[in-house]
Amino acid sequence: MIEYRNEGAVRVIVLAAPERLNALDAAMQSELLAALETAGADPACRAIVLTGRGRAFCAGQNLADRDPRRLTAPPDLQASVAQGYNPLIRALRESPVPIVCALNGVAAGAGVGLALSCDIILAAEGARFLLAFSRIGLGPDSGVSWYLTRALGELRAKALMLNGAALDAAEAQAAGLVAAVHPAQALEAAGLAQACALADGPSLALALTRRAIHAAATNDLNAQLDLEAELQGQAGRSPDYAEGVLAFLEKRPACFAARGD
């Protein structure tokens, strides 16, 4: 259900259950978490592409597993979210390497959270975010309320989530959620090209940049200034900084070290 392959220093991870629109069950959640952790622990991996097979990116929870006609009691959704989805969102958010989401189709429910937890989203022209939680009597999970409130503002986030509305690829790009929109047939190549560009970059500097941006959501200015100074100190001691300065002075492309070097 989860497939992966290496494209040079890029690990491509594919949600591969197109017959159910890549909806997640417990087994697929576990496989995806393992794939992310394995990629992050591999020093040869310098960037990740996350995408889906078929006409959807991820339809969220596989509701066939939650059919009330087959259950003897209501499901424990608190445990389901805490144990199944939250670890995935944290793994994406805290990945040691940047993650590009190639949003090949609809992302619904928790699938929206998976996409928004990546660092850069490239979308196919027919892709869309579907905020479908309220349609099945639920509130948001998988970080969706956190991401959308910060990206869109409280009122627009409410309007979308209370109505179970959708954002198409163009609207998501205009809102700043999607970096670029591509024809469907060009998305895979675009996602890989973006990830390869990141993989060729200074791994430590990219990791520190992501850490600073993530912290900015909760830091005040003084705390952020202190953090930037700390992170810049780490970057300045790295071989990549010396190489970057030399490359600039010698008017040549920089050749940054592998992760951990």
| Strand tally | 10
How many domains?
2
Strand content: 15-25%
- The CA-CA distance between the termini, in Å, is 34 Å
Please give the CATH architecture of the largest domain.
Alpha-Beta Complex
CATH fold naming of the largest domain: 2-enoyl-CoA Hydratase, Chain A, domain 1
**Overall SS class:** alpha/beta
The CATH superfamily of the largest domain appears as 2-enoyl-CoA Hydratase, Chain A, domain 1
- Outline, from the CA principal axes? globular
Helix content: 40-55%
CATH classification, class level of the largest domain: Alpha Beta
Largest sheet: 6 strands, mixed
How would you summarize the topology of this molecule?
Blueprint: E1 2-7, E2 10-15, H1 26-41, E3 47-52, E4 56-58, H2 77-93, E5 99-103, E6 106-108, H3 110-116, E7 120-124, E8 128-130, H4 144-152, H5 154-163, E9 166-168, H6 169-174, E10 180-182, H7 184-199, H8 203-216, H9 221-236, H10 239-249
Parallel strand pairs: 2-3, 3-5, 4-6, 5-7, 6-8, 7-10
Antiparallel strand pairs: 1-2, 8-9
Kindly list the characteristics that best describe this protein.
single chain, 261 residues, alpha/beta, 2-enoyl-CoA Hydratase, Chain A, domain 1, Lyase 2-enoyl-coa Hydratase, Chain  A, domain 2, 2 domains, four-stranded mixed sheet, 10 strands, 16% strand, globular
Give a quick rundown of the structure.
The protein contains 10 helices and 10 strands. The radius of gyration is 19 Å and the shape is globular. It is of the alpha/beta class and 261 residues long.
Structure description:
This protein is α/β, with parallel strands linked by helices and 261 residues long. It has two domains: 2-199, 2-enoyl-CoA Hydratase, Chain A, domain 1; 203-249, Lyase 2-enoyl-coa Hydratase, Chain  A, domain 2, CATH 1.10.12. Helix content is 47%, strand content 16%. The chain contains ten helices and ten strands. The protein has a six-stranded mixed sheet with strand order 1-2-3-5-7-10, with helices on both faces. The chain has a four-stranded mixed sheet with strand order 4-6-8-9. Strand 2, helix 1 and strand 3 form a beta-alpha-beta unit. Helix 1 (26-41) runs parallel beside helix 2. The chain is globular, with a radius of gyration of 19 Å. The protein starts with a strand and ends in a 12-residue tail after the last helix. The model has no long low-confidence stretch (mean pLDDT 96).
